[in-house]
């Protein structure tokens, strides 16, 4: 045992970068809603980007560390504390054994990620640690974390004690990730047209690009229901089910839209009017119920450019985190 | 085309979704771009690969599958709670419906929606009904029909198909090497069983 759940949050699950390759069995990739934040959490503590992390929502859990650990918290800001001392997110921190991590206040964002140095001991299902709640498989027994669950670390982390003074419960290490660029202009979401975009009436295209849409309270890890002015097709037609993706915007028969998120179904039969660009999925993942979205049309070239920039920044971060950590541990 | 892509994958391909009349290919643009730097975008590189795949696919022999899977179904009202509705709507007796559903074999055209959810067709024209207006909670193993399709719900979830029976057979087992029972291209036959038989098969199935 290395950490235990004293009090579970509303939805705490084990996630990683997802489980691609099994759509032929109807199993979707799933994974962290905000893959950028989960990757950064891992990198800050010197892990591979695809280690298992804990994804939490607000209200978050209370977690007892039963041994010293190097952790990082990224994504949403739920004002994390260790034994009531404030922790800086997006920065690695050594925590002493028998301290409690707590998330008392929702500041911003929707999903927060906790990574521990070395990763968590889990068996992979179909090459991934991600929890698939619908399949009741993967992650921690295929379910969300509950009170009393005890998760073990892969690595013995006893040596981190040397980094703490006797009086200290935690110590932030002197490197951090700058996430501002990724979450800039939170509500402006770039998209490319979907296969059925040109089936929309001209006025519907205008509504889609000019109006704001509100994320409906029934939104979850499967998808966000968007409310706003009704959108319609030039001709009603029944579409044959086709593949869909994280970020696909589908038009429902009632003129409202659904934006598919990480736990979406593999196929869908509604018109696909747009796809959110991959580089903007982290922003989407951090939007909350009642937040608004403003769609902006872009093209493949820009979409790829933004993703490559994000990827390059992550590679730089990974290298510098590894160097920092090696300098401290050696 | 799917077979060809599986035999000749390009760097960065992540997943393929086969549906009735489409094939969706998912890729990691970063890996594609790194491996095919001569293209101006990763998208163009993938497009080129898919054009090649489409060209090759036409003279690619797909091994026809002859696997036949027999699925026992209990068509009692208790499990097939929409039988009465369909009987009234289609002016058929329940026996007619059961007979029509079990007297032909179906092909799995597509797997999607949920883990192990196999879209099978085509059902007899006399059984064509539209989707329910509002999805209802459906118990795992329930056999549904809509349009010219039939399927079995592998897990308990909301669904909009009309339910005509239930199978005690497990269709999704995460721990199995191939976790789903009905894969693309399989031939499926349904046969009717009594409630007693249903229960006895269920008892023999572990962890259900």
Short description:
The complex is a heterodimer of chains A (330) and B (208). With 330 residues, chain A is α+β, with helices and mostly antiparallel strands.
Produce the secondary structure layout.
The complex is a heterodimer of chains A (330) and B (208).
Chain A: E1 3-7, E2 13-15, H1 35-44, E3 53-56, E4 62-65, E5 69-77, E6 81-82, E7 85-86, E8 92-95, E9 99-102, E10 108-116, E11 150-151, E12 170-172, E13 188-193, H2 202-210, E14 213-215, E15 223-227, E16 242-243, E17 248-251, E18 257-260, E19 267-268, E20 272-276, H3 281-285, E21 292-297, H4 300-329
Parallel strand pairs in A: 13-21
Antiparallel strand pairs in A: 1-4, 1-11, 2-3, 3-10, 4-9, 5-8, 5-10, 6-7, 6-9, 8-12, 13-20, 14-15, 14-21, 15-18, 16-19, 17-18, 17-20
Helix pairs in contact in A: 1-4
Chain B: H1 2-7, E1 13-18, E2 23-27, H2 29-35, H3 42-57, E3 68-74, H4 83-90, H5 94-102, E4 106-111, E5 118-121, E6 136-138, E7 142-146, E8 149-152, E9 157-159, E10 162-166, E11 187-193, H6 195-204
Helix pairs in contact in B: 2-3
């Amino acid at each position: 045992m290395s950490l235990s759940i004293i009090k579970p949050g509303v939805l705490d699950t084990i996630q990683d970068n997802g489980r691609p390759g099994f759509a032929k069995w109807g199993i979707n990739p799933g994974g962290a809603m905000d893959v950028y934040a989960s990757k950064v959490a891992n990198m800050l503590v010197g892990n591979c980007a695809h280690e298992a992390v804990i994804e939490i929502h607000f209200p978050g859990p209370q977690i007892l560390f039963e041994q010293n650990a190097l952790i990082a918290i990224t994504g949403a800001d739920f004002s994390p504390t260790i034994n009531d001392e404030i922790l800086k997110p997006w920065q690695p921190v050594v925590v002493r054994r028998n301290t409690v991590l707590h998330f008392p206040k929702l500041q911003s964002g929707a999903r927060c990620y906790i990574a521990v140095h070395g990763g968590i001991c889990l068996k992979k299902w179909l090459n991934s640690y991600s929890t698939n709640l619908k399949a009741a498989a993967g992650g921690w027994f295929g379910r969300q974390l509950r009170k009393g669950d005890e998760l073990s670390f892969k690595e013995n982390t006893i040596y981190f004690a040397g980094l703490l003074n006797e009086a200290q419960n935690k110590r932030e290490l002197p490197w951090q990730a700058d996430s501002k660029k990724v979450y800039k202009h939170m509500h402006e979401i770039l998209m490319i047209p979907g296969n059925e975009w040109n089936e929309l009436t001209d006025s519907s295209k205008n509504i889609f690009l000019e109006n704001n849409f509100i994320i409906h309270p029934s939104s979850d890890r499967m998808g966000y229901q968007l409310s706003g002015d009704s959108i319609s097709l030039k001709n009603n037609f029944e579409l044959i089910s086709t593949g869909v993706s994280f970020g696909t915007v589908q038009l429902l028969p009632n003129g409202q839209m659904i934006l598919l998120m990480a736990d979406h179904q593999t196929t869908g039969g509604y018109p696909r009017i747009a796809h959110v660009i991959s580089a903007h999925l982290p922003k989407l993942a951090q939007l909350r119920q009642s937040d608004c979205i403003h769609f902006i049309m872009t093209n493949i070239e820009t979409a790829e450019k933004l993703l490559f920039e994000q990827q390059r920044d992550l590679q730089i971060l990974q290298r510098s985190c590894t160097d920092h950590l090696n300098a401290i541990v050696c | 085309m799917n077979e060809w892509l599986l035999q000749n994958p390009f760097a960065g391909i992540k997943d393929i979704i086969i549906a009735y009349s489409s094939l969706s290919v998912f890729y990691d643009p970063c890996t594609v771009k790194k491996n095919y730097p001569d293209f101006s975008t990763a998208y163009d590189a993938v497009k080129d690969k898919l054009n090649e795949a489409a060209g090759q696919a036409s003279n690619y022999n797909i091994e026809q599958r002859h696997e036949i899977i027999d699925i026992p179904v209990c068509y009692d009202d208790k499990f097939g709670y929409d039988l009465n509705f369909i009987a009234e709507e289609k002016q058929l007796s329940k026996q007619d419906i059961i007979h029509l559903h079990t007297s032909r074999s179906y092909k799995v055209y597509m797997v999607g929606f949920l883990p192990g959810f196999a879209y099978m067709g085509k059902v007899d024209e006399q059984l064509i009904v539209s989707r329910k207006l509002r999805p209802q909670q459906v118990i795992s193993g329930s056999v549904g029909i809509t349009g010219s399709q039939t399927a079995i719900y592998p897990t308990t979830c909301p669904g909009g198909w009309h339910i005509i029976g239930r199978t005690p057979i497990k269709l999704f087992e995460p721990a199995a090497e191939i976790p789903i029972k009905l894969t693309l291209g399989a031939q499926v036959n349904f046969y009717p069983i009594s409630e007693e038989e249903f229960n006895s098969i269920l008892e023999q199935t572990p962890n259900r």
